[in-house]
Structures are given as structure tokens and as C-alpha cells.
Specification:
Blueprint lengths: L1 H11 L1 H14 L23 E3 L14 H5 L5 E7 L5 E9 L8 H5 L5 E3 L14 E2 L1 H10 L1 H11 L4
Antiparallel strand pairs: 1-4, 2-3, 3-5
Amino acid sequence: MNKLINFFKSFLLLELLKGMSVTGKYFFAPHVTVQYPDEKTPQSFRFRGLHAQRRYANGEERCIGCKLCEAVCPALAIKIEVAEREDGTRRTTQYDIDLTKCIFCGFCEESCPVDAIVETRVFEYHGEKRGDLYYTKPMLLEIGDKYEEQIAKDRAADAKYR
């Protein structure tokens, strides 16, 4: 009896009809594809993209050279050199991030006591060769200056969760 049932199932192509019914159901359903360059999906204020260094309102850089971000980085992507200034405070002379090594975990951002290094919402950047993704202190400060308004809004939205 099973042989006869299996024969009719294979003869009538029931599996094929079941598959075609699933295809037909999704073929006429509304599509959820985002046409990327023209449409953008909403981003969280905690999105971790391109790194930036922030400044205080008076224009002085925030980084105090504590090297916590360098110590906590699991990918060893951050390199910092520190020097003492005339007034006795420490500031970085070199702050480099190699984005080819970075895993965008956000540990550097979380460990910073003065909120100097942050990850912005910028994800549309590229490098054509390895050296293009090696960001130095002036480049990071420039990114921070450019996106400071958005960074400040994101930090304010995240403040109640810290």
C-alpha cells in the first residue's frame, strides 16, 4: 500500500506543488528590501562606527593620556604616546588607530574617563589600501569636530543608561 501512495505522490509531483505554493505566497507579499543609497535604515544612538576624538568647549582636546583605551583594546589597534606639558598635565603626542585591526567592540569608548574617544554613526568610509585606514590624532580630531553635534546628542541620549 505504501508503494502505491509513494507512486501517486511522485507521479502528481506533490513536493513540487508544495514548494511552488511557498514561493507563490512570498512572491506576492510586500517586499522589505531597502534601496540603500537612496533609503537609509534608522540607526541607534549606540551605533559603533568610525572613531573620533572630542574636544572641550574651549577647543582643548579631551584626551588626558591615561592609556586605558590602549590597554583595554582586544585587537591591539590603538597606539598612544604621551608627553607632559609645561603646566604639568599629560596630553597625547601620538594617538593612532588602525581600523584594519579594530573590531569595533566599543571597549575604548567605555573605558575612557573623559569621553575623549568615541565611535560615531559614520559607517560610509573606505580605504583603497591598508594605509588609508590608519587614523592619526589630527584625523580623529577632525572627525570629532565635524560630527560633534551628533556625538553630543548621542551621549545625551545614552547618559541615562550609564
